[in-house]
Amino acid sequence: MSVAFRRESDDEHMEPKFEIPLPPGPNWVTARGMRMTRKTVAELEAVDMTAMDEEAAKKHKRLLRYWRTRLATALEQPVPDGDVVAFGACVTYRLNGQDKRVAIVGDDEADPNAGRISFSSPLARAMMDAEVGDTVDFAGKTEAVEILGIEAVEN
Q1: Dist CA 1 CA 42 (whole Å)
Q2: Within a 13 Å sphere around the CA of 87, how many CA atoms are in the beta-carbon half?
Q3: C-beta of residue 64 within 8 angstroms of C-beta of residue 45
């Protein structure tokens, strides 16, 4: 019989389910990030999956695999001394005439709305190793970032 006349199952038309992508590069975390990762893994492990339907259980297991991998690969970084912009620093800077403050943290603990950006973000990469008073190029030299202050991230 021709393949044109065979009945295809509904599963053949479903989107494949992939693992949650891991951010490239090292998995640096602050002490806060390490606590957050451990707490997330513990909460996910404590969930009773027996009452879940198959699809929800698969989604939960995928999430648990992601967080277990992140915990296994986490590299807690030392608190910076505050002399230069580094991972774990809170940086006060001026961009386009506005003063702002961000903490440079790991990928999983980044939350730009809360003032925490990933060390791999373009802004953090532009500011790395700068000192107070330095002006660094950002966004292809169209904007300058002036470093006003550097402190250690609150843990």
Answers
A1: 53
A2: 21
A3: yes
Total length of the chain: 155
Q: Tell me the average pLDDT of the chain.
A: 87
132 and 147 Cβ atoms separated by less than 8 Å: yes
> How many CA within 13 A on the CB side of residue 110?
17
CA angle 97, 88, 85 (to 5 degrees): 50
Question: What are the pLDDT digits (tens) for 48-92?
Answer: 888 889 888 999 999 999 999 999 999 999 999 888 999 999 999
Report the alpha-carbon distance of residue 60 to residue 75 in Å, rounded: 25
- Residue labelled with tokens 């949650």: 20
Q: Which two three-digit tokens encode residue 149?
A: 């202050």
Q: Residue 145: in which H helix or E strand, if any? A: strand 143-152
CA nearest neighbour of 131 among 115, 116, 150? 150
